[in-house]
Specification:
Radius of gyration: 24 Å
Mean pLDDT: 93
Largest sheet: 8 strands, mixed
Shape: globular
Strand order of the largest sheet: 8-15-14-10-11-12-13-9
Low-confidence stretches: none
Oligomer: single chain
Helix content: 40-55%
C-alpha cells in the first residue's frame, strides 16, 4: 500500500527497545495494542484460532461499512496489535489467520466507500429495532444448543481422533458465535449512536457522564451471576459451621474445610458446583486459552464468596441503587422537555437504547467468556491425552503449540518435538512480560484515527493527550463520575483478589466480567486500558464507583499502598502519598 496525500500525524517503525519486522503494506497502517482484550503476551494457540478479529471481514461485508472492510491482527514481541483495513481498492497488505496467509478483502471498486455508506445508513436502524427479538427467539437459543453439544460431549471416553474432530467443531462454533457477536455489536452501536445523535439534536450538548449512566443494565447474565453468588453467601452467613470453614487463610484451606464436614460437602454439591456449571465458563482473561476457568478451578469462586462475606455484600441494595440511578438519569434527560415531537422522538430513541443495554454483559457471557472457555476445555481434553502419552509435560502445554503443530502431533507424534517448542515459547512469554508494549505502532492519519471502534481503546484521545509532567499525576479517560481518596491496590492476577481490602482503589491493566466480584468491595477503579464504553467503565458506572480508564501507565506509576485521589469526572488521578517515601 502506498501512502496517499493525507497528512501523517505520527509514525513508529521500530527501535532497539521495541523491534518490529514489517511485511509489505503493514507499516502504512495504524496498529493499536489490544490491551482491551489481550493485555498479556498471547499464546500461539489463541492467536491462531481464538482471536476476535477472525470474523471481522464478515461483519464489514454484511453491514456495508464505508470506513473499513476488515480488521487484522499482528503479533509483535508477543503482544496482539490490531489494524482496521480501510475500504480502499488501492490497498495491498497481507495478514495471518489460522497460520495461513490471509489477504484482507478490499473492494475492487475505487468508489465503493462513497457508494456503500447509504446502504449502511439504510439497513442499520432495522438491526437496532429488531435484533433483540432475533437474539431472544433465534440467536441465543442457537448458542445455547451449541453449548449443550460441547458440554455434553464425553471427552474422557473419547479417542484422540474424536477429540481432534471435536476441536474442529469447536472452532466452527467459535466462528459462528463471533459472527453473531458482531451482529449484536453493530445493532447495539446503532441504537446508542442514534440516542446520542437524537440527544444532540433535541438538547444540544449534555454531560457525557449522563449518556454513560443511560447505558446501565439491571437485568442480564452478569447480574444473574452476582445474585447467585450473593445467595450462596447468605446461606453461608446463616450457618456457623460454614462460616468457620470460610475462615481459612487460602481458598484451598476453605475447600479442605468444606470437604471435611457434612454441611460443607452439601454446600459444594448443592450450591457451588451448580454455580460452576452455570457461571464458571470464564477465566481471569477471557481472550486467552492459557488461563483456567472457574469451571475447572473453584478457587476464584471461594475468594469471591470470602469477599462477599467480608463486605456483607447486599445484592438487593446494589441492584436497587443501579435502578435508582438509571431512573434518575432518564428523568434528568427527559423532564425538562415539553410535550411535543422532540420529546416523543427522544423517548423513542431512549427506549430502544435501554432495551439493548443488557446485550453488553450478555454477549460477554455467551461469546467472549462462554465460547472461548469451551474451546479451551476441548484443548485441555486433548492436552490430557497427549500428557498421558508423554508427548506433553502438562495438558496446558497444548496452548503453546501452533494450531497445525498440534494437528501434526496428534496424527504423527514423531513429526513434532513438542517439549522443546513449548519450553522455548514459555521462555519467550516470560521475556515478553518484561516489555512494556507501545500503545500504537505504524502510521497515524486522521482517517485511521477516526475508525469508530477505536474509541473502545481510548483513541483518538490517547494519541493526542499529554501526561502531566508531575510524576504524582496521571491522566486517563473520565469513565464514571465522582471523586474518591483511598489506598491503592495494584492487581495483576486472580491470585491477588483476596488481597483487595474493603474501600481500596484497584489499579490494573484491564478488567473483564471475572473481575466483577472486586467491584462489590472497592471504592474506585483505575486501569491502563479501555475507553468510556469498555468493561471497567460500564461496570463502575453500574456500581456507582469513580473510575478513570485508559491511563496507559497507572500500573507503572502507582504502587500498592499509595494514597490516591481518583476523579472520575475529569479523568485525573493524583498520588497523594507515596508508600516508597
Amino acid at each position: 500500500m502506498a501512502l496517499d496525500t493525507e497528512q501523517v500525524l505520527g509514525s513508529f517503525d521500530t527501535d532497539v527497545s521495541f523491534p518490529i519486522e514489517w511485511a509489505e503494506g503493514e507499516k502504512e497502517l495504524l496498529w493499536i495494542f489490544d490491551d482491551l482484550h489481550c493485555p498479556n503476551p498471547v499464546s500461539p494457540m489463541f492467536f491462531d484460532i481464538g482471536g476476535w478479529w477472525l470474523t471481522c471481514d464478515h461483519m464489514f461485508r454484511r453491514f456495508g461499512t464505508p470506513f473499513a472492510c476488515d480488521w487484522i491482527a499482528k503479533k509483535i514481541n508477543g503482544y496482539v496489535y490490531a489494524a482496521a483495513i480501510p475500504a480502499d481498492s488501492s490497498l495491498r497488505v497481507e495478514a495471518t489467520e489460522y497460520q495461513s496467509r490471509y489477504v484482507p478483502r478490499v473492494p475492487r471498486d475505487s468508489e465503493h466507500a462513497e457508494r456503500i455508506g447509504s446502504y449502511l445508513d439504510w439497513v442499520l436502524p432495522h438491526y437496532a429495532e429488531n435484533f433483540l427479538d432475533w437474539w431472544n427467539d433465534r440467536l441465543r437459543p442457537e448458542i445455547e444448543r451449541n453449548f449443550a453439544f460441547l458440554d455434553g460431549y464425553d471427552t474422557e471416553a473419547a479417542s484422540l481422533v474424536e477429540l481432534a474432530v471435536l476441536l474442529e467443531d469447536a472452532i466452527d462454533i467459535h466462528d459462528r458465535h463471533w459472527k453473531i457477536h458482531w451482529l449484536l455489536n453493530f445493532a447495539q452501536f446503532s441504537s446508542t449512536a442514534r440516542l446520542a445523535a437524537t440527544i444532540h439534536e433535541v438538547k444540544g450538548d449534555v454531560d457525557s457522564a449522563l449518556i454513560g449512566r443511560l447505558q446501565s443494565s439491571i437485568a442480564d447474565r452478569n447480574w444473574d451471576s452476582i445474585e447467585a453468588l450473593w445467595q450462596i453467601k447468605e446461606t453461608i452467613k446463616q450457618d456457623p459451621e460454614l462460616l468457620d470453614a470460610f475462615r481459612g487463610t487460602t481458598a484451598d484451606d476453605v475447600l479442605r474445610a468444606l470437604a471435611g464436614c457434612e454441611r460443607g460437602r452439601w454446600l459444594v454439591a448443592e450450591k457451588i458446583d451448580p454455580y460452576r456449571r452455570e457461571f464458571g465458563n470464564k477465566s481471569i482473561w477471557s481472550h486467552e486459552f492459557a488461563f483456567s476457568t472457574w469451571r475447572e478451578n473453584p478457587a476464584p469462586i471461594i475468594e469471591a464468596l470470602r469477599g462477599y462475606l467480608e463486605s456483607d455484600y447486599d445484592y438487593p441494595q446494589a441492584i436497587e441503587d443501579v435502578e435508582r440511578d438509571l431512573d434518575g438519569a432518564v428523568h434528568e434527560l427527559m423532564d425538562d422537555l415539553p410535550p411535543g415531537a422532540d420529546r416523543g422522538k427522544l423517548r423513542q430513541a431512549l427506549d430502544l437504547s435501554l432495551k439493548m443495554n443488557p446485550l453488553t454483559p450478555d454477549h460477554h457471557f455467551y461469546v467472549d467468556q462462554g465460547t472461548n472457555a469451551r474451546v479451551r476445555l476441548v484443548l485441555i481434553a486433548i492436552g490430557r491425552k497427549l500428557a498421558a502419552a508423554r508427548l506433553l509435560d502438562r495438558p496446558e502445554d497444548v496452548m503453546y503449540l501452533h494450531y497445525n503443530e498440534l494437528r501434526a502431533l496428534m496424527a504423527d507424534p514423531a513429526s513434532v518435538d513438542a517439549a522443546t517448542l513449548v519450553s522455548e515459547r514459555l521462555d519467550e512469554r516470560e521475556q515478553a512480560y518484561r516489555l512494556r508494549p507501545r500503545e500504537w505502532v505504524g502510521t497515524v492519519t486522521k482517517t485511521q484515527l477516526d475508525f469508530p471502534y477505536y474509541t473502545l481503546w481510548g483513541f483518538p484521545d490517547k494519541f493526542y493527550r499529554q501526561q502531566p509532567e508531575a510524576k504524582d499525576e496521571l491522566v486517563g479517560l473520565a469513565a464514571s463520575p465522582g471523586v474518591v481518596e483511598a489506598t491503592a491496590r495494584v492487581v495483576d492476577s486472580p491470585e491477588e483478589f483476596d488481597r483487595v481490602r474493603q474501600g481500596e482503589v484497584i489499579v490494573c491493566r484491564m478488567t473483564n466480567p471475572a473481575w466483577v466480584v472486586l467491584f462489590t468491595k472497592v471504592a474506585g477503579v483505575v486501569t491502563d486500558a479501555g475507553g468510556v464504553a469498555s468493561h471497567p467503565a460500564v461496570v463502575a458506572r453500574e456500581f456507582g464507583l469513580p473510575a478513570v480508564v485508559g491511563t496507559s501507565i497507572a500500573t507503572e506509576r502507582i504502587r500498592t499502598g499509595d494514597r490516591v485521589r481518583v476523579n472520575g469526572s475529569t479523568g485525573l488521578v493524583s498520588i497523594l502519598e507515596n508508600r516508597r517515601e
